[in-house]
Amino acid sequence: MKVQLTAVFQKVPEGYIAFVEELPGANTQGATLEEARENLLDAVRLLLECYRDEAEKQLGDAEVIREPLQLRA
């Protein structure tokens, strides 16, 4: 499954700041563009993991159905 998001990079005096337009909270920085790209991928992975963990906590012992969700543009 592929989901395409939009990464935005802005040049600043210290290097680059980066965020994902469609995913609030996914933001980072880097001294170089490549470092900012790598850091943004890590930020997205950590954010999704955090969201998943929080959802599991909120569900507790509730009986739920989990299934893959595929997005198509």
From TrEMBL:
Signal sequence, start to end: none
Highest taxon of the lineage: Bacteria
PANTHER family: ANTITOXIN HICB
Protein name: HicB-like antitoxin of toxin-antitoxin system domain-containing protein
Organism: Candidatus Coatesbacteria bacterium RBG_13_66_14
